[in-house]
């Protein structure tokens, strides 16, 4: 079974401050949990919005410092975006998947297929400067580091998920999606499990961390600086842990790239 | 704001029975809630697995009664699936999107892009007969009907979501996805809303019912006959209600069909 729990609780940690480069996210999470009157327990899952992780890691870039290449300028003309932003997108990407006016979908160097390489220009308070916020350098490593530090701080074995809002083919609207995970199975593989009647299950892999990320997004809202950290309590699983990278479909398996 | 709540609770209704054609889902949901010690409140959201809705609506088909067309036989040879199942898939679909060995992705007549037109062969107890379960005829209407009946039964204005497990391009694993919705915004449109710093938001549409569907899937698990109904309490929204059909990206907007 993927889960044995019958109840889940999601708690947005209240009063989470705006995060700056170098801030200690572990301390901020522990303090936020204390404000919510919550002590971490084994099996709790902490979901953090990508923005706070990126900011703590200093992934904010002043667009004034970016010189667009010729390739970026050409592509910017095609997608009608700021050439400096497009330059950053290209630096963060392996390749362009789709380019249309107002649309730039790339394969991020992490393997994520996403608009604008996940670079965000909203909700950035930068004293008038035009800033862009890149994804964390290695979100799975960021999640694992925070998981280890939360264990040190609380004695509890918690899972950590870093989420971001992703658009999807075929469907309108963004949904919370896992870009980093630690201490839980991001992907649950049930191949071979029988169903209730002993028949082999048709659905064999579950995007577990993506479902966790989506659930947390319901509380964060899209302007996720306001409520960027959500605690999820009551989830249980039997599968071994694996990182969010396990959710990436290799190109050889993919029919839509 | 999409949500103003700081806590969410999800409760899988215990002891939900196996559902047969003609069963009164409203009564079963009310009885399940009573077993959980829950009385419906305004703003509660009830999420039902597609399977129980389909079964109650008599969407089970005995494969022995299906005669595959020549087109179905040819396609079945290509995708290495039962020609009778492929015949049902074609009847339920507008067109084939991708066909490969063991893969048959179609545009369902409802507009959903999905494997096998959502037809399920697992978890069906049919006394030895080979049965296939089709999607509900009109899941948004099914959700609306249940919403209205739950209001009559409980006096509470609840939202209803019908979910199913969908595979995705680019990412491994299925996630819970909304195929029907009533009494809540399936899609939240925030175009024009300012972010925390008064800048226009870059993310303007949220797949709200898909996030609800994914959250509920965490409790249902994929063998969702066991826990097919989940109550979600604590969610608030300010957007007007719209059905799950609002989540369908029109082909003219879609770069990956």
TrEMBL record, chains A, B:
GO terms for molecular function: coenzyme F420-0:L-glutamate ligase activity; GTP binding; metal ion binding. Keywords: GTP-binding, Ligase, Magnesium, Manganese, Metal-binding, Nucleotide-binding, Potassium. It comes from the Bacteria. It holds the Pfam family F420_ligase. Residues 16-234 form the Coenzyme F420:L-glutamate ligase-like domain. Coiled coil: none annotated. SUPFAM superfamilies: CofE-like. InterPro entries: F420-0_g-glutamyl_ligase, F420-0_gamma-glut_ligase-dom. The keyword Metal-binding applies. PANTHER family: COENZYME F420:L-GLUTAMATE LIGASE (PTHR47917:SF1), PTHR47917. This is Coenzyme F420-0:L-glutamate ligase / coenzyme F420-1:gamma-L-glutamate ligase. It comes from Ancylobacter rudongensis.
């Amino acid at each position: 079974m993927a889960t044995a729990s019958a109840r889940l609780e999601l708690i947005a940690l209240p009063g989470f401050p705006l995060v700056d480069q170098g801030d200690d996210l572990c301390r901020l999470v522990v303090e936020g949990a204390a404000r919510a009157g919550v002590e971490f327990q084994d099996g709790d899952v902490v979901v953090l919005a990508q923005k706070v992780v990126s900011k703590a890691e200093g992934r904010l870039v002043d667009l004034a410092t970016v010189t667009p290449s010729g390739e970026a300028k050409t592509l910017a003309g095609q997608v009608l975006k700021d050439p400096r932003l497009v330059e950053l997108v290209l630096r963060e990407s392996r390749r362009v998947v789709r380019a249309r006016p107002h649309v730039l979908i790339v394969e991020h160097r992490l393997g994520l297929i996403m608009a604008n390489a996940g670079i965000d220009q909203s909700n950035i308070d930068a004293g008038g400067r035009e800033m862009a916020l890149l994804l964390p350098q290695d979100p799975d490593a960021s999640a694992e580091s925070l998981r280890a530090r939360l264990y040190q701080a609380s004695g509890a074995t918690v899972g950590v998920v870093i989420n971001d809002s992703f658009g999807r083919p075929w469907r309108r609207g963004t949904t919370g999606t896992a870009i980093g995970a630690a201490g839980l199975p991001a992907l649950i593989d049930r191949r071979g499990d029988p169903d209730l009647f002993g028949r082999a299950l048709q659905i064999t892999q579950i995007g577990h961390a993506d479902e966790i990320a989506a659930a947390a997004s319901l509380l964060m809202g899209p302007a996720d600086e306001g409520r960027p950290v959500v605690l999820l309590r009551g989830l249980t699983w039997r599968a071994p842990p694996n990182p969010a990278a396990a959710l990436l479909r290799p190109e050889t398996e993919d029919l839509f790239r």
